[in-house]
Structures are given as structure tokens and as C-alpha cells.
Amino acid sequence: MEQHLHRIEIVTRGRGLVAITDQICDWVTQQVIVTGLLTIWCRHTSASLLVQENASPDVRADLETFLARLVPDGCAGRYRHAEEGPDDMPAHIRSALTQTQLSIPVADGLPVLGTWQGIYLWEHRMAPHRRELVLHLLGERT
């Protein structure tokens, strides 16, 4: 059994889903682990991780629209924590409602994803950010 740890930086353009499947899969294949478990950890309280449909962009747009209705932006009395603007507290709530960590099995040297599944960083702030993800792979070469 061996393990590998790696950090990657994801630059976002602001609120929305950023596809990170290729970056994750590229790193996993470089580790030559055939069977194991990949953990992806987001080191932020205003962004999250998601495994979701990767074929239709409408799915991602609908998810964003739904979450915007569920957790609207706004400072004017809606939230006490608003030091960084009207999207500050909503970003924290969005992160709390989603996931900041994913665990994905690895088989045949790749994360085991379904045909239409992709891995995404979900940026919850309106402005662009640099987000750091920590990848931890535990497994065996054969």
C-alpha cells in the first residue's frame, strides 16, 4: 500500500462550476496506482466540490439557478456576516449545503466515474478566485 499527496490550484472566473476532471485524472494516472481511493479536499469555505453530469451544460446552469433561488445574495438585513459583500455569507451557506470533499474509487489506474460524470469545483463567490485542492491517493500498484 502506498499513498501520494498533491495540491492543485484552480483559477475560477467567478460563480459557477469549473470542470476539473482532466486535471484530476491526469495526476492519478501519473501515480501508477492501479486500485485505491482518491480523496479530493477543497481548502475553502466559499467553494465546494461536485460530481455531476458532464454532457449537458444545461444541468450545470439549472443547478446554479436552483441554488441561487435557495440561497439568494444580499446584505441588507438578510445576513449578519457580510464583510466581503452581498455574496459572502451566501457563499458560505452554499458550501455548507454541498460538499468540500469527495472520495472516489480508483480502478485500472483511473477514478471510477460513470459515463456522464465529471468532477467540478463549484465557485460560490461572484469574483474570480484561486482555489487550492488537495488530492490524496491511497492504493496499490497491482
Nutshell version of this structure?
This protein is α+β, with helices and mostly antiparallel strands. The chain has helices at residues 21-30, 57-70, 88-97, and strands at residues 2-11, 16-19, 35-42, 47-53, 101-107, 110-111, 117-123, 130-140.
Q: Please, could you describe this protein's structure?
A:
With 142 residues, this protein is an alpha+beta fold. Helices cover 24% and strands 39% of the residues. The chain has three helices and eight strands; from the N terminus they run ββαββααββββ. The strands form two sheets. The chain has a five-stranded antiparallel β-sheet, covered by helices on one side. Strands 2-7-4 form a three-stranded antiparallel β-sheet, sandwiched between helices. Strand 5 (101-107) and strand 6 form a beta hairpin. It is elongated.
- Please give the order of strands in the largest beta sheet: 1-8-3-5-6
- Please give the alpha-carbon distance between the first and last residues: 10 Å
Query: Into which percent range does the helicity of residues fall?
Result: 10-25%
**Secondary structure category:** alpha+beta
Rg on CA atoms, Å: 16 Å
Summed over residues and divided by their number, the pLDDT gives a mean of: 96
Describe the secondary structure blueprint for this structure.
Layout (H helix, E strand, L loop, with lengths): L1 E10 L4 E4 L1 H10 L4 E8 L4 E7 L3 H14 L17 H10 L3 E7 L2 E2 L5 E7 L6 E11 L2
Antiparallel strand pairs: 1-8, 2-7, 3-5, 3-8, 4-7, 5-6
Index terms:
142 residues; alpha+beta; 5-stranded antiparallel beta sheet; 3-stranded antiparallel beta sheet; 8 strands; 39% strand; elongated
